[in-house]
Amino acid sequence: MHTAYPPPEALLPFVSFFYEIKWERKDYGEKIEEFILPSGMGFMVFQYSGSIYGRSIGGKKPFVPKCYTTGQQINAYTLTSDDEIVALIGVAFKPAGLRKLFGFDMHTLVDTPLSTESLLNVNLTKFSHQLERTTDPQERISMVEQLLLDRVDRANKTSPMVDLGLEMMYESYGCIQVREVSDKLNVSMRYFQKKFKEVVGIPPSTFNRIVRFNNLFSEIDMNAQNDYASLGTLYNYYDFSHFYKDFKKYCGHTPREFHIERFKFIQEVFVKDSLFIKNVQTL
Asked: Rg for the chain (alpha carbons), in Å?
């Protein structure tokens, strides 16, 4: 189960939405397991019941702190827990949001969950205990909101060029060429790539590819046979092998082998509600 909450006006330049998730082991098999696609966003997560660990496709199982922050995900991953209940509050940041609000070195956060306490140099023990004791979901969201609001006055300025580039990528559903973006911004492609990676953490071509795949994935019909060749053409894949390669990269399986019905979260968030393409205004 997930619930999304809009951010207050003061956080709109940084945050796409807040969310609360509760997963119960009785709804799964031997353990809680959910598959997550790269979303184009960064996250700050506060676990207040149970604990999760993550593993990217073909990767190792990293330690996930109770309160963690992660930047861009360029590989799909699974979240797993052996606990009876996992509950958490999360913040989905706009692509440049973490850099703007906190000034993080975004390269270090790519595919890496790091301790929020260490990143912010604060002790969150008392905060975590308060989250655990609070029974009202809106109160938990308000607590996390306040943690971020306290940082707004110290927010960092980033290049508006990157925001404009991000807007073009989202408006084109990830189908625009990066060369076209830099040309429209009247800057060299190398300069745009450098500034984009500094603010977002990954190259613009990689980010654009994620945006395109998220838009394509949102078109999947969970109750019918999908015409992947037509979907690939719709989103400017040159040929089916090109689409096939992206699908396997992000889903870990070929379109024929991938069983979306196994994963409730990805059905709800990436297809039914399409949260990561409906809440992406960057300007």
From this structure: 19
